[in-house]
Amino acid sequence: MEDQEKKPLLGDRDNGPVVAVPEDDVVLEGCGGTLACDPRRALHKYLILIIMCFLSFGSYFCYDNPAALQDTMLKDLNINESIYMLFYSLYSWPNVILCFFGGFLIDRVFGIRLGAIIFSLFVTAGQVVFALGAFFNLPIVMHIGRFIFGIGGESLCVAQNTYAVSWFKDKELNMVFGLQLSFSRVGSTVNMNIMQPLYDAMKKSFPDQQGYVILGGTLMIGVGFCIASLFCSFALAYFDKRLERILRKEEAKTGEVISLRDIKDFPASVWLMCIICVAYYVAVFPFIGLGLVFFEMKFGLSPSAASACNSVVYIISAGASPLFGFCIDKLGKNIFWVITGVIITLACHACLAFTWINPFVPMVIMGFSYSILASALWPIVAMVVPEHQLGTAYGIMQAVQNLGLAVISMVSGMILDSKGYLVLEVFFLIWLCVALIASVLLYLVDAAKGGHINLSGFQRRKIQKANEEADEKSK
Fold first, then answer.
1. Calpha distance 342→437 (Å, rounded)
2. I need a labelling partner for 269 at 20 to 30 A (CA). Which of 73, 207, 446, 471 fits?
3. Is residue 229 in a domain?
4. Entry pTM
5. Helices 334-354 and 303-331, interaxial angle, to 10°?
6. Quick one: pLDDT at residue 469?
């Protein structure tokens, strides 16, 4: 492989030769030359971004269907908590492996377009099986459905991230990742707020039906969202193929494909980001999963107030993530934003553990810090990894994150049962310290290589343009 082919996608040069496309050479078939159909125009890219955000909306909406209907499922299906928790573990445990191979398949076998369609089909099929299992009161069929759903769910997120880099690698990548995070939180929030009322409404409309039949019908509503996301995968495949044809992107490719041996050559930055991802997220999601009783016991909140306090991180991040992503695009300094997000979250957990201030205050601040970190961390992968390895790199991060969440969730439950919430909070603080150390190491590694991760989008484009002009003069 030539040195030029090893350049990172968002490094000092493009990953591969630049193919100039004269204005008069571009044929915009079927659109009459309108700005909305011209892939060189910002309007077209932002319309594609809307489709891109809805690509995984159905997956995020359906992921927490069990949480939204927990009491109803326990009663109508006559199951215990252990069987209920399998709905989540059968999703998470397979993804420790599956989303890594999903990313590898996107890079090496399917390509991003076919990969996104296949994983969307798995998500849709899994939700259909899950709903049918409930309709016929067959929990084992529901477990099979969640397993199928999990095969596609995390890998679809990998495909979405790869699409984002492919379309927005030059300017707005942090904002795009923030917006995708926002839509994921919107999907979860919509699910939490409408599934139980929909079940209640269907129960009133069909009073003679068994509860599990009503439950199956309610879960079928999630299938509609999955089908909408599936249509988005087909639309993205069409527009991405059209972009490649119009701008002749195929001519600019190096022909490189990833092999499993290439993983050992990933830069240290990738593995440090995996550590940050695990150490940070295990201090957020498991805490939220166990936080309801914590707010009731320590702070004396009512169940409704405790629920509102527990969900405020997601609500804040839904609105704040795109805004922080936009700021990071303009200012750069991704690693400093990551460090800032970790430090603020560390302070929030310390306040919850050792003070008695109103818990809404640290939880609101944690919502902003979570938005900062997520918007700044995930785009860094595209700055250090070549384009043909992006799916695999994102797959590895998703796999490591799922492993961490699966293990730490179990450990957190055991700590809570045996030691209580104070020790659990100290446990989370230790993990955040690990994330902080890894973030500082990431900064030092990047600084030793020239500090290009902390450049703004404008600075990268300026360096890229200077390099292109130097190449032209040398020819």
1. 10
2. 471
3. yes
4. 0.72
5. 160
6. 67
Nearest C-alpha neighbor of 102 from the set 174, 150, 168: 150
Cβ neighbourhood burial of 398 (10 Å; 0-12, 13-18, 19+): buried
456 and 427 housed in the same domain: yes
| 273 and 242, same domain (yes or no) | no
Q: How far apart are CA 189 and CA 183, in angstroms?
A: 10
**Predicted local distance difference test score (pLDDT) of residue 4:** 42
Would you state the structure tokens that stand for residue 20, as one six-digit string? Answer: 């100039």
Q: Is residue 19 part of a domain?
A: no
Rounded Cα distance, 285 and 269, in Å: 24
Q: Taking each helix axis from N to C terminus, what angle separates 390-418 and 139-168, rounded to the nearest 10 degrees? A: 130
Q: Is the pLDDT of residue 17 over 70?
A: no
Q: How many CB atoms lie within 10 A of CB 354?
A: 11
442: its two tokens: 């990431």
189-228 pLDDT per residue, tens:
788 778 888 998 999 988 888 888 999 999 999 999 999 9
Same domain, 242 and 272: no
Q: How many residues does the chain have?
A: 475
Joined tokens for residue 312: 């405020």
Question: CA separation (Å) from 36 to 41, 42, 256?
Answer: 7, 8, 32
Task: Give CA–CA dist 250/5, Å, rounded.
Answer: 15
Out of 248, 283, 300, pick the residue that ends a domain. Answer: 248
How many CB atoms sit inside 10 A of residue 461's CB? 13
Residues 44 and 168 sit within 8 Å (Cβ to Cβ): no
Establish how many alpha carbons lie within 13 A of residue 16's alpha carbon, considering only the half-sphere containing its beta carbon: 14
Average pLDDT over residues 459-466: 68
| Domain total of the chain | 2
322 DSSP 8-state letter: H
451 or 115: which carries more pLDDT confidence? 115
Q: Which of 31-45, 68-82, 421-435 has the lowest mean pLDDT?
A: 31-45
Q: Which amino acid is at 418?
A: S
Q: How confident is the model at residue 162 (pLDDT cuts 50, 70, 90)?
A: confident
Average pLDDT over residues 151-179: 80
> Shortest CA distance to 377 belongs to which of 393, 363, 361, 362?
393
Question: Is residue 369 located within the same domain as residue 457?
Answer: yes
Look at the block and give the residue holding tokens 């384009």. 387
pLDDT above 90: percentage of residues in the chain: 27
Q: How far apart are CA 244 and CA 231, in angstroms?
A: 20
Q: How many CB atoms lie within 10 A of CB 417?
A: 9
Q: What is the dihedral of CA 127, 105, 166, 399, to 10 degrees?
A: 70
In this prediction, residues 328-354 reach a mean pLDDT of 92
Classify 8 as helix, strand or coil: coil
Classify residue 127: in a domain, yes or no. Answer: yes
389 vs 228: which has the higher pLDDT: 228
Show the domain range for 317. Answer: 268-475
Share of the chain above pLDDT 70, in %: 82
